[in-house]
Write a structure and sequence with these properties.
Shape: globular
Number of domains: 2
Largest sheet: 6 strands, mixed
Number of strands: 21
Number of helices: 0
CATH topology of the largest domain: Jelly Rolls
CATH architecture of the largest domain: Sandwich
Order of helices and strands: EEEEEEEEEEEEEEEEEEEEE
Strand content: over 45%
Oligomer: single chain
Length: 274
């Protein structure tokens, strides 16, 4: 723990929580769910219905039929991640939900991160959230709910870490909830090995007047917030107002306005948001 006196105020930079990612290898085939093998055969709506046991390039469809959407479909929902996405409600809508799965090579006892995005279209009640899925990676499972607010197309990012127990791990994502009943968007799925990536830490600080600038390790595309408390051992960590940011590189700088103001000493940490 490093403590720095700043004009009578002790600023302590606490060890932070999370995992930071730099360049890591993508392990999934066609995580963006594109038409990489030119197998997309659209119906009159610009959608392809795909049955269980058949494939979207890289993926096997499970449970029931899903809809493979192109951006040229006659309906409104679109993906910001390329030209294609899947809709886990299928044409049967709200009665059953589909899933997709893929088996990847893994190293036992290594830690991996699964990330994916869920989509909704809030301007049409039949396409609106909340949206929910269950995700399984080997022996690790979790449920995720996307409850967007506001209007228009909305996409939310979700992730979970898992430890591999064999040389191959099956990744599965299955639909569980569609608020509107006619749409449950899924796209931009990724799995990366995060075992040897450095910890999320505050690497530097600088003072400018009463402001404090912190530099911390980060992963592009993930959101972070600065949290503080006055005692390192007890008390609740509170998010510093206006400190949440979206990382665009491996290092992120955040300025805490009027942090050096003659008040009690503070301990700071960086928190990676879901």
């Amino acid at each position: 723990m490093k403590k720095f006196p700043l004009a009578g105020v002790v600023i302590a930079l606490a060890a932070s929580v999370g995992v930071q990612g730099i360049a890591a290898q993508e392990l999934l085939v066609n995580g963006s769910l594109e038409n990489t093998s030119a197998t997309f055969v659209p119906d009159g709506n610009g959608i392809m219905q795909v049955s269980p046991g058949t494939t979207i390039p890289g993926w096997t469809v499970t449970d029931t039929t899903l809809r493979f959407w192109a951006t040229t479909n006659v309906f409104v929902p679109k993906t910001p991640f390329g030209d294609f996405a899947v809709d886990l409600t299928g044409y049967q809508d709200n009665l059953f939900f589909a899933g997709i799965s893929q088996t990847i090579p893994t190293v036992p006892n290594s830690t991996y991160r699964l990330t994916f995005w869920l989509g909704a279209y809030q301007d049409n009640p039949i396409y609106a959230g909340p949206m929910g899925v269950s995700a399984t990676a080997g022996s690790t499972s979790n449920s995720f709910t996307f409850a967007p607010t506001g209007s228009g197309a909305k996409w939310g990012r979700f992730w979970m870490n898992f430890s591999a127990i064999s040389n191959f791990t099956t990744i599965s994502i299955r639909g569980a909830l569609s608020g509107g009943g006619d749409y449950l968007g899924l796209d931009n799925v990724s799995v990366m090995n995060v075992t040897n990536l450095p910890a999320l830490v505050i690497t530097n600080w600088a003072r400018s007047g009463s402001n404090l600038q912190l530099t911390h390790t980060s992963e592009a595309g993930f959101r972070y917030a600065v949290q503080s408390r006055t005692n390192l051992v007890t008390g609740n960590w509170a998010t510093v107002p206006n400190s949440t940011n979206l990382a665009v590189s491996d290092l992120t700088q955040i300025v805490l306005t009027n942090a050096v103001n003659g008040g009690p000493h503070q301990f700071y940490r960086i928190w990676q948001l879901p």
